[in-house]
Design a protein that fits this description.
Number of strands: 16
CATH architecture of the largest domain: 2-Layer Sandwich
Radius of gyration: 22 Å
Strand content: 15-25%
Structural class: alpha/beta
Largest sheet: 5 strands, mixed
Number of domains: 3
Order of helices and strands: HEHHEEEEEHEEEEHEHEEEHHHEHHHEH
Number of helices: 13
Helix content: 25-40%
Shape: globular
CATH topology of the largest domain: Nucleotidyltransferase, domain 5
Oligomer: single chain
């Protein structure tokens, strides 16, 4: 509670912390002393005040004195890693090609990238966070990630054993939603972050809480079928083993293939066609959950413009005005680093209780 307040409010007095948390001043003094002994908090001068008496001493969180190791393994072309401070600022970057990698080969690349980043800092690293595709449980076990060839992979435990650091692993759409809510300024009352990368997924934040679902599969919109062979359409086989999933037309590789070699006008029409399919999938989700924001995380040149506009138009055509009049579809504020920063938020939350 103390760290959460200091993270969001900045330097505060012990009296401020007592008022904010509802704890007694004696308890706050004890907690601040513990946090100072752990070197997470330090005194930061005195507060300016016009009141008579001794000015209050401020304490601050030492956000620049620690690092978080974050890795994004969900991209279709490269694995991206970074060292970040506790406010999400990227200090060092590294990347490694992963096109076509699957199974153990991907884990080998991940471990090598982590070790390279750890060697690049003298700061204490409080943990490693990984944004991964697939269905992932609360213990960091990848239950299934067909695009990576991972099934029942205890990825967090493997990283902890190999790197001797606490590890947190979550679906990349969930990490993107957490990043936009914690660092990107999203409201988080009714937020859906749609990731369009090697696969397609969605992270949901409702009333400030990440929605996971009883099977850890909330937001798996990429595997909703949208191509109907009974209507004369020609569905493509998805990595999940079914035909005609949204992912087969909306993933970054599928979109790039769809517009390759097309004139600008034809490219816009092709992207708008996919946007309408996306709108059909999202319309019942928007109505059921009363969403306010849909954030698109992926290649801006493919998602912004005709695709996003067609999706929003389709949602409005298929829902009551009360559900969609105020709906906003836009690119994620944190841009291409959203999943990386979300992976850092996993560590920040898991190790320090800050979101």
């Amino acid at each position: 509670m103390v760290l959460q307040h200091l993270f969001h409010a900045g330097p505060s007095s012990r009296a401020d912390l007592a008022r904010s948390t509802g704890l007694t001043r004696v308890t706050i003094s004890d907690l601040v002393a513990e946090l100072m002994a752990a070197e997470l908090v330090e005194e930061a001068g005195t507060a300016t005040s016009t009141r008579v008496g001794k000015p209050a001493t401020l304490v601050r969180m030492r956000t620049d004195e620690f690092a978080i190791l974050a890795v994004d393994v969900a991209d279709d072309l490269e694995m991206r890693g970074a060292l970040l401070n506790l406010t999400g600022e990227i200090l060092e970057r590294r990347s490694a090609p992963q096109h076509g990698q699957r199974g153990e080969e991907t884990i080998t690349t991940l471990l090598a990238l982590c070790r390279e980043l750890l060697a690049a800092t003298a700061l204490p690293v409080i943990g490693v966070g990984v944004a991964s595709p697939g269905v992932i449980d609360s213990h960091g076990v990848v239950l299934q990630a067909p695009n990576r060839g991972w099934f029942e992979v205890p990825l967090a435990a493997r990283l902890e054993a190999e790197l001797d650091l606490p590890a947190h692993v979550a679906n990349d759409a969930n990490t993107s939603a957490l990043a936009e809510y914690t660092l990107g300024g999203a409201e988080g009352q009714g937020l859906l972050a749609l990731t369009v990368r090697h696969g397609v997924g969605a992270g949901l934040v409702l009333h400030g809480e990440l929605v996971r679902g009883p099977g850890h599969a909330a937001g798996e919109l990429g595997h909703v079928t949208v191509i109907d062979e009974h209507a004369g359409e020609d569905p493509v086989r998805c990595a999940c083993g079914r035909d005609g999933c949204l992912e087969t037309i909306l993933s970054a590789p599928a979109l790039r293939a769809r517009v390759a070699g097309l004139a600008p006008q034809d490219s816009d029409a092709a992207l708008a066609s996919v946007g309408r399919r996306l709108g059909v999938v999202l319309a019942p989700v928007v109505s059921a959950l009363d969403l306010e924001e849909v954030l698109l995380c992926g290649p801006q040149e493919l998602l912004a413009g005709p695709l996003a506009e067609a999706a929003l138009d389709t949602i409005r055509e298929r829902t009551m005005p009360v559900s969609s009049t105020g709906l906003e579809i836009r690119m994620a504020a944190l841009g291409p680093d959203v999943a990386l920063q979300g992976a850092a938020v996993l560590v920040l939350s898991g190790q320090l209780g800050v979101t």
